[in-house]
Amino acid sequence: MLVFGYHVGTMRIVTQSDARAVVDWLFTLGLSGVQFFFILSGFVLVWSTRDGDRRRDFWRRRLAKIYPNHVLTWAAALLVMWWFADPVVPRAALENLFLVQAWDPTPGYFYSINNVSWSLSCELFFYLCLPLVLPAIRRAHSGVLWAMVVAVPLVILALWPGQQLLPEGSNWWFTQVFPLVRSTEFWLGVAAAELLRRGHWRGPGLPLASLLFVVVWVAAHWIPAEMWAALLSVAYILVIPAAARADVQGRWSPWRHRTLIWLGEVSFAFYLVHVLVMMTVLRLTGHWGVGLPGWSGPLAVLGFLVLNLALAAALHRFVETPMMRRLAPRRRTPPVPAAPDAARGAAVPDAARGAAARGAAGPDAAVGGAVVGGGAPAGVAAGGVRPDDVAGSGGVTVPGPRAAGDGRRAGLPVEYVGPRDPH
Q1: Nearest to residue 259, comparing CAs of 309, 333, 201?
Q2: Which residue range or ranges hold the Acyltransferase domain (predicted)?
């Protein structure tokens, strides 16, 4: 929703002065919704990936998640361009189709066709890298991971003065689009997830982390713009692990509400359609670039919100979900360790009995999870988790791990109970 609000502002749909001021104040920082998702994506993928997963299965699941929706919206964007007699550059269209456009600094190319898909181009690069780097992440000392968490916001802060060394015209692409630069946010989430997985994360709880996020968001309006991205990366990396930990510990979280879970599920599709839908309607009605007068602007925004949610729900139900079931490989379910023989007098810990019971529930058993919309605050929800919902700015589910026996006291990695991904 942050990205939706940001684009409502950049398209200048609302022209009424008071309403326009509210939109500007609330969503000036909305572009950071993509930053939030990059961090969250790295966190979720490490939090939900189990050792022994084959690389090709991981890559296949990721492609099965993002490509069906991407190809459909890519084709829809080309149809809209044909309707309005817009010129189509074959190179740009092909770069967009194969999700390599973010590597091309040529103005107009990285935002070509369905322009929001540039973030999928970055995500595809992250997906390719993670299985290759994850073994080193698992072996890394916790001090190295903490160094990553501290260093990334500082690197983001240094990018603003550093971009002055670039050729004029490449600054925006380098800081906002270039996959290598944007991957720093992804690796921030990766490091935090591994620390939490080991029981070494020392961030605040969810209430305090949420309060700090709100303070940063409000205070940013009086802070120089070049510091926004660095400060928000800190705020996001406090909230995301706090939400996951609250779920693991069974604490109350506002993000378990069914409505928020549903919004998280459809948010990937929502992200892909929202700009295309608003731009098309505004061009058809003659309001593109000029907005709507009076209070018709805010009403139009509400209408766009409902329309995009309806289209996203249809895309999620009739394209995204069935194509994932058809294209994604099945997860191999590890055998549940046998309980000690009671006849020998061996006591079975309560945690082990719970693990065996839940593991026997079948391949679709779930322990709990978080559902977050791309560009919306992170949240955690119990039940019905699907870690494969990670893509672009889409809905994300975080499976809930538990402590492995006395592993939490010993500082060992937490252990997952039962399958974490039905695919």
Answers
A1: 309
A2: 2-316
